[in-house]
Write a structure and sequence with these properties.
By secondary structure, the protein is of the alpha/beta class. It has one domain: Rossmann fold (3-Layer(aba) Sandwich). Helix content is 39%, strand content 22%. Strands 3-2-1-4-5-8-9-10 form an 8-stranded mixed β-sheet. It has a two-stranded antiparallel sheet with strand order 6-7. The protein is globular, with a radius of gyration of 16 Å. The two termini are 24 Å apart.
């Protein structure tokens, strides 16, 4: 069943890349930003990249408007804006599946992890959004690959969370991206490992000038 998916802070490369793939899969996408004009500009970029390919509607709005009509919400803000953004949207996100794709990282002569008191950005989101169904996912996909609508991502998406039904919905959504498989990576407390692997990949990509992803072998029969 098609979803309406809001991307909170979705104007950056990762947000626009995910928006591209969700629209290709037939989901209505709303790109959110603190400023509605930036959200609309992000949507225009996504539509330009999709060209004449069949796709669902893509629009832009401010974050609050974007999430108001969505049944799935993906958070892709920089970590520095994570807490404030979620606290501001807490009521609007109640009852929704919220996919946290934020990586706690700063750049100081390369990527460096940020210490999160709750353990991970996803756990922090769950603590803030007590009325939402919080799941961690989509951290490890290279934005450059996602933005190319003809490319196969060739990677696994690790999905963490406490809500089994919400996790299955996100695993199914991941599987709609070409070359992607969603994997149940366990409870929320494992989110910190997924987020830290992303920082490792960022460093590898910088050294090798590449756009890498991760694959788990041995699950073909499951």
């Amino acid at each position: 069943m098609p979803h309406t998916i809001a991307l909170v802070g979705g104007t950056g490369p990762e947000g626009r890349g995910l928006a591209t793939r969700f629209a290709l899969a037939g989901h209505r996408v709303v790109i959110g930003s603190r400023d509605a004009t930036r959200g609309e500009a992000g949507a225009a970029e996504v539509l330009a990249g999709l060209g004449s390919r069949p796709h669902a509607a893509v629009s832009g709005a401010d974050n609050a408007t974007a999430v108001s009509g969505a049944d799935l919400v993906v958070v892709v803000v920089p970590y520095a804006a994570h807490r404030a953004t979620l606290e501001g949207l807490r009521d609007a996100l109640a009852g929704k599946i919220v996919i946290d794709a934020v990586v706690p990282v700063v750049f100081n002569r390369g990527p460096r992890p940020v210490d999160v008191p709750d353990g991970s950005a996803t756990e922090e989101a769950a603590a803030i959004l007590g009325g939402s169904r919080v799941v961690g996912a989509f951290h490890n996909l290279a934005a450059e690959v996602l933005l190319d609508p003809d490319a196969s991502a060739g990677a696994d998406v690790f999905v963490t969370g406490a809500d089994a039904e919400a996790k299955q919905a996100v695993i199914a959504l991941a599987g709609e991206i070409a070359g992607v498989r969603g994997i149940d990576a366990g409870p929320l407390r494992f989110s910190r490992f997924v987020e830290q692997i992303t920082i490792l990949l960022i460093g590898i990509n910088g050294r090798y000038k590449a756009h890498t992803g991760l694959r788990v072998v041995g699950l073909d029969a499951h």
